[in-house]
Design goal:
The protein has 98 residues and is mostly helical. It is 69% helix and 0% strand. It contains four helices and no strands. Helix 1 runs antiparallel to helix 2, helix 1 runs antiparallel to helix 4 and helix 2 packs antiparallel against helix 3. The relative contact order is 0.16.
């Protein structure tokens, strides 16, 4: 006799918050090293966009990925916590609209 094991979907809320804060901190680190930090943004911007698309699926994840990329690539916008804002949107604003 075969037993079927049901796997319940994992709630990624806490994981996404912790990762989001970590990725926002990494993005803000360019403020700590003048001139060199801006070069780091060139490397981090596409990585940030790809991570955002991986974390948040669908159309909103793709839009957030583009926004995250632009936020990292443009100077002076590094202080915007794009991952944390997307987390808030996903788990509070969007959830409230259902």
């Amino acid at each position: 006799m075969e037993e079927q094991v049901q796997i319940s979907p994992v709630d990624n809320k806490i994981r996404d918050l912790i990762l989001g804060i970590l990725f926002d901190v990494i993005g803000m680190m360019s403020f700590t090293i003048p001139f060199i930090g801006e070069f780091g943004d060139v490397v981090w911007a596409p990585i940030s966009g790809m991570i955002m698309v991986w974390m948040y699926k669908g159309k909103m994840g793709k839009v957030a990925g583009v926004v995250s990329f632009l936020e990292e690539i443009f100077p002076i916008t590094d202080f915007i916590p794009s991952f944390t804002l997307m987390w808030l949107y996903t788990y509070f604003v969007k959830k409230g609209k259902r």
